[in-house]
Amino acid sequence: RAESPARLNLAGGWTDTPPYALERVGAVLHVAVLVEETLSTASGSGGGKLKRPIAATARVDPALPRGTLRLVTDDTTETIMDIREMLTHDDPTHHFALLRACASLAIAPQYVLSGKDKEELLSGKDKDKATNQKTLAEVLDAFTGVPNAGVEIATRVDLPRGSGLGTSSILALAILHALHEMGTRMRWTPNGGGEETLNTQWAGRSAVVGGDADAVITESAHTRETRAAIATPSSRHAFNAVLAVEQMMGTGGGWQDAIGGALIGARLTKATPGTHAPCGLNSLPSYQTRVSDLPPAASTFLSRHLICVFTGECRLAQTVAVSVVHHWQARVPGVEKALRSCALLAGEMADALAQLGALDPEKEHFTGAGSERARSSLTTFGAALSKHRAIQETLWPSIASPTVTALYELLEPMTSGSHICGAGNGGHVVCLLKPGVDVEQVRTKVANCAQALGAKVTRVRMMLGGVSTIVPTTNDVSTTVPPANAVPTVPGVSTGTPLTSKPSAAGTNIRGDKPLDKEPAPAKETVAAPALGVGNGTGGRGRSGRVHEQGSGRGRKKRRTG
């Protein structure tokens, strides 16, 4: 079982979304959050404990008939016996589209096709492809190493659908995480694939459930001999696998949700487009993250002022994403400039957090309403939050529904900035309170807002921590899923960490050797944080490397962005 927090995206949204993310540098400021146990209670506070609200469990079930894939979510079950049904995952309104897409990518990547080839395969019109196609039973046997058994994937999300807190992408990462550990019997954490890392902390956790890990699954000698070994996925490949799942479903989601929910700390993540290869992992982005160094006193001060308000409305991210994609593909005047401005604002907000974290906690900067310098950092942060909102609303007015607009007007006197999370038009609004404003005061006003019935303050806790470093995730250690002629390895073949029946710590050092209850020693050599600047010259390349905001970029070969 893999569990993950939700995430708050604070600035830079839509610069992570294809096709823009495949052509230009994007940057997002985001942070993982624990969320109160239930959002469906009548009270405004919810009253539940804070927890990781997103979880996925994958297990081999000998009681299931061979070749059975059982999907379970929201107390609803789907049983799949035909590989073609599993590969049908491109309707985002289908209840099991996400689970089908994840299963297809992890279990049968060789059949994750697109366009005409996939249509012919699923329809059976191409006789050669149909003849060479393996059955679901065969690919499950190869993936698990267990003959004559089925596989169950079950998910739990304690958030409203369309919450704007990154649910679908983070759930996809949790599913792929659980499937990887089930198939390989090896522990996995981000950057656990041999990459050079600098104090990266995993915000999720995983555990073996349902009995002794060594006794849960028994493999035959023939299976052990025929299963090919694979390397542990790098974090880049894991995050890009989620990016691929979003495109397979047709939602068009980006990379920032998975990264924001995977790692501890308020992070400025910069993504650089891959090579001009027409397909494959090298065509997808590579990432760097700059972690805001916030000592405990600064973290507590920031947490007192940042709140999250559920609008009472939910939406499908695809609705807004389609508009964004069309604007970019049509090169609507001002779109590229606006998206670059959003990325720059993410950097400005990260700088404001760095200034907050640099204040000496011994000089009472964080007591009460805070010192003038502490309040100034928050004011800068809040102003950038609202400026980001204004830029996006100018280009895509649909992200602010009448309900969201009413809440903005209600919150304005009490906040220094606010912005809708995710795709907008519903879900959650993140707000920065002005000094002296009490959360209970906000809670009462939100609960009594006649234009936003069902709105309430959601209790969250940001998972802050880490030091100001840049964490590269560009190392090509392996593919996220086995190649067409390979399947996951078994203990003793791979060099990973064998699974045991003991749960892994919530914050395990990514090298698996030290607990994170104490701050890791800083690396001897780090990359200067300002290298994450996002500005002129970092975008798409024309003849001389100059960026063309409008036009098709004459003089260069047209690249595929599908």
Descriptive keywords:
disordered C terminus, globular, 562 residues, single chain, seven-stranded antiparallel sheet, 33% helix, 17 helices, six-stranded mixed sheet, alpha+beta
| Cα gyration radius (Å) | 23 Å
The tally of helices reads 17
Q: Describe the main β-sheet briefly.
A: 7 strands, antiparallel
Average residue pLDDT: 77
How far apart lie the N and C ends? 33 Å
> Quaternary arrangement of the chains shown?
single chain
Q: What proportion strand?
A: 15-25%
Helical/strand content category: alpha+beta
Shape: globular
Low-pLDDT segments: 39-45, 192-199, 212-223, 466-562
Helix amount, in percent? 25-40%
Structure write-up:
- By secondary structure, this protein is of the alpha+beta class.
- The chain has 17 helices and 19 strands.
- It has helices at 20-23, 83-86, 97-107, 115-123, 127-132, 136-144, 167-184, 213-216, 221-226, 235-249, 256-262, 296-305, 317-329, 335-358, 372-395, 402-411, 439-447; strands at residues 2-4, 6-11, 26-36, 50-51, 54-61, 69-73, 76-80, 150-157, 186-187, 205-206, 267-272, 286-291, 306-310, 415-420, 428-433, 456-458, 460-462, 470-472, 497-498.
- Strands 2, 3, 4, 11, 12, 17 and 18 form a seven-stranded antiparallel β-sheet that branches.
- Mean pLDDT is 77; it is low at 39-45, 192-199, 212-223 and 466-562.
Concise overview:
The chain is α+β, with helices and mostly antiparallel strands. 33% of the residues lie in helices and 16% in strands. Strands 2, 3, 4, 11, 12, 17 and 18 form a seven-stranded antiparallel beta sheet that branches. Strands 7-6-8-5-1-10 form a six-stranded mixed beta sheet. Strands 14-15-13-16 form a four-stranded antiparallel beta sheet.
